[in-house]
Design goal:
Number of helices: 6
Number of domains: 1
Structural class: mainly alpha
Shape: elongated
Radius of gyration: 19 Å
Order of helices and strands: HHHHHH
Distance between the termini: 67 Å
Amino acid sequence: MTDKMMSAAHTERSRVSDYIGMLDDSNEQFAAACLSVSSNHLEETEIQAGMRKLSEFSNEAVATLKPFGEKYGRHETKESEKLRGTLFPAARAGAFGILRDLHALFVMASEIHVALAIVMQASKELRDEELLGNCIHMDEQNKRQQAWLMTQIEHRASHTLVVPQ
């Protein structure tokens, strides 16, 4: 009896739209975070150029996902926005601020990576070759984002943490 009541109250549906929305939102928030970091560290030309390129990758992913959101639906979530708010509570200044911002961006890029892996698996199950091909391309771009961020983190960490400022 309980099973019948629960199943009547819960309408079954595909969850592809949930993760297409999450992947889309994660990329939008990542691009916005890159612009914010860039505007907070105007004196850092390498950060300026890097943030511009990383946000381009995410903006491209958002554009790529649009037709699949129309095809499968796009369930909007606030999780990515909340994550960004948590990771970037306020503008940070100086070398330590840049390091913290890079760390936070890496966490956001990792969120994209996980959501992308899930959508990629769904595309295989759906036998949607177009979505799969786009997921593979987005994955390559996301790996570039993560690699650039980790290179910057490793380059800046020792001097930032050890040398008194």
